[in-house]
């Protein structure tokens, strides 16, 4: 039993090392991977990979370490464990390590688990509260079409919300103040969010960001919101043309600036950047090289665990 | 203003009070409860909860309480929208997608510049 627990402790240490490595790499990776030249589709793909990095890298290291341990257990690798001293922690299921953990080590794990659990439940509670508010809003709104609800509010507001029952919400102020074509553009923009599945995807991104440091999470969140808005803009542009979409964003921006004076913070991505982008024929560069590099880097990290397992075990021996 | 958590029946009863102006428990039951197969007692409890949540006010007329809205529909809608969207402007987690960010306001000069550019494009295309 102690052997298995010690083995699990070694895997946990490896996962922690993977998390630290991902956290250290992210400040350089975020600006390098998310160039302004990239189209929103490619940015979204890269954001998924970056958001998942603090989960995927530890998991990769642990999986490769487990593969190594299983391979040794079934005699697929040369069993070198007997050559080591008794204190050497083996990543091997045939010679399970026997470690004695100190109280401080247990306390660090307990603290880290408590922080993660707290952040997880706080996010879940916030999302449930938001879902309740959206349900009340939906019940008090007038249904114009199956997915279009009109909210009796004189400000200019349009948004898509609801993960379980997604719908778009348009305010009375927006319907009264925008022209027919502008309203169609707004509806098409919100419909694009629903069609692209942006709401459940945003929720999934939020859960992935739980393992990020706050500054990195904020940066990736901003980039994600910007990418989903630009992606929806592009979907509308194909139908209505960039000038009309840019014109609608500008009109809403003007009307929203009046809203701001009465204390409403309507959301979305940076409007100036989006309008400018629509007017200057976006480059929308797409490239699969990032995904390949990402996979190769993960594979290399995992392979390093196998090829350099003796060094990894020695390193773990120093830590424990 | 912060909107407390509301159940389905509470929302329906609140909507009914806004529409009718002032209702007794029996009126609310006739208008909302009967079609839902809800008992008079349940409707009465919903009214009581809404009163405790300060969304309804009540006055006694002979033996019955009459409930009227303490907060207008517009106020509740505005507060709900603010709560749903308000967090989205900052760094707080949210799974809502709104069309524009008023938190990052455009200044008048930028607006005019972009407007001129759009105008020029429209003129060129006609």
Question: Could you characterize what this model shows?
Answer:
The complex is a heterodimer of chains A (320) and B (126). Chain A is mainly alpha-helical. Chain A has a domain of 106 residues. In chain A, 70% of the residues lie in helices and 5% in strands. Chain A has eleven helices and four strands, in the order αααββββαααααααα. A four-stranded mixed β-sheet of chain A has the order 1-2-4-3, sandwiched between helices. In chain A, helix 2 packs parallel to helix 10, helix 5 crosses helix 8 and helix 7 crosses helix 8. Chain A is elongated. Chain B has 126 residues and is of the alpha+beta class. Chain B has a single domain, classed as Winged helix-like DNA-binding domain superfamily/Winged helix DNA-binding domain (Arc Repressor Mutant, subunit A, Orthogonal Bundle), CATH 1.10.10.10. Chain B has five helices and four strands. A three-stranded antiparallel β-sheet of chain B has the order 1-3-2. In chain B, helix 1 packs across helix 3 and helix 2 crosses helix 3. The longest helix of chain B has 18 residues. The radius of gyration of chain B is 23 Å and the shape is elongated. The relative contact order of chain B is 0.11. The model of chain B has no long low-confidence stretch (mean pLDDT 84). Classes of the chains: A mainly alpha (320), B alpha+beta (126). At the A-B interface, helix 3, strand 3, helix 5, helix 6 and helix 7 of A face helix 1, helix 4, strand 4 and helix 5 of B.
The gist of it:
The complex is a heterodimer of chains A (320) and B (126). The model of chain A is unreliable at 261-267 (pLDDT under 50).
Q: Please compute the radius of gyration of chain A using only Cα atoms.
A: 25 Å
Report how far the terminal alpha carbons of chain A are from each other. 18 Å
Structural class of chain B: alpha+beta
Helical run tally of chain A: 11
Average pLDDT of chain A, to the nearest integer? 85
Report the strand count of chain B: 4
CATH architecture of chain B, by name, is: Orthogonal Bundle
Biggest sheet overview of chain A: 4 strands, mixed
CATH fold-type name of chain B: Arc Repressor Mutant, subunit A
How many distinct helices of chain B? Answer: 5
Largest sheet of chain B: 3 strands, antiparallel
Give the low-pLDDT segments of chain B: none
